[in-house]
């Protein structure tokens, strides 16, 4: 079964969401970002096989608000989180069960993650978590059981069983799962590897345009270029980013229209002044047969040509 390693080691769900948080933030709509933050919050309480998340709603609110900045979400409240849990359950992302505690007379709420629905909605987080869980599963599989210690097997020709550099690298990568996203500074722009993977030769141009948009210096032509490049590589744009690009383009059109209107008004004002002046002069002046000059004492005189 493909998902067996992840079911046996659910602790890697948290690492999957934390590592993919920047990509989810850049490419997913607000509703899905909130769900991703909720799933990371739940997964941080499911660390062993067979366990479920039984944390109280108050505890979930606290952890959710600690994680929300990574997904560009607003802090939540008690009532809002209850609605989000209902939404996640309706989408088959989680399953909630009520289990009675006979000792205290209380009903405890347990939450279980649903792998299939999460795989469909958050493929990146699923693949990362599955890959990490698979590495740990393979290591445990090689060293499982005590019979092999009492009766050693013959040397295996399988390279996976050798103490090679590959095994050491696997150990280091697994250790990095909990620290990679913690030490990484999130500036709201995806990594260089993501741009290269999606946009290939256009990666540098797309990154520069997105940085310009983040800093508020993107022009209308740049906004059109972003849309064109995303369509070229069949990559969807986040709804908030689309709204910003439309705003940049619309602002440029409004500015250009205002400049044209001001120019037209200036021409109209000049024509009006000329018409008023023509009404105040004589017929010969309008024909250019009059010359104005100053005499010896500085008085203005008229000379008819």
Automatic annotation (TrEMBL):
Q: Where is the composition biased (Basic and acidic residues)?
A: 151-168
Where are the residues of the annotated region Disordered?
141-184
What keyword terms does UniProt attach to this protein?
Plasmid
Q: Which domain of life is it from?
A: Bacteria
Question: Which InterPro entries does this entry report, sorted A to Z?
Answer: EF_Hand_1_Ca_BS
In Swiss-Prot or TrEMBL terms, this protein is called: Uncharacterized protein
